[in-house]
Amino acid sequence: MTAHDEAIAKLRLLPESLVQEVSNFIDFLVWKSSSEDSSSSWLKSRESLELVESDFSDYLSNLEDYENRLDRGEIKW
Predict the structure, then answer these.
(1) In the chain, what percentage of residues exceed pLDDT 70?
(2) What pLDDT does 40 receive?
(3) d(Cα 19, Cα 37) in Å, to the nearest integer?
(4) pTM over 0.70
(5) Buried b (16+ CB within 10 A) or exposed e, 39-60
(6) Structural domain boundaries of the chain?
(7) CB within 8 A of 22, min separation 6: which ones?
């Protein structure tokens, strides 16, 4: 199984609210990886501006909470 397949399988198990957060984080990673190419059309888009202004602290705290719930057995893969 490839890393892509594993990531997709994990995403399918997440509740919709967390899927949106993961999607936002993926957008951030795409932006970060393409920031070296200033001519990228994605960087010039409205989405990129919104993403740059967003706060990922909520994502990180929610991810930590999710991991803790997994550890306690409240959520099962």
Answers:
(1) 66
(2) 56
(3) 28
(4) no
(5) eeeebeeeebeebeeeeeeebe
(6) 3-71
(7) 11, 14
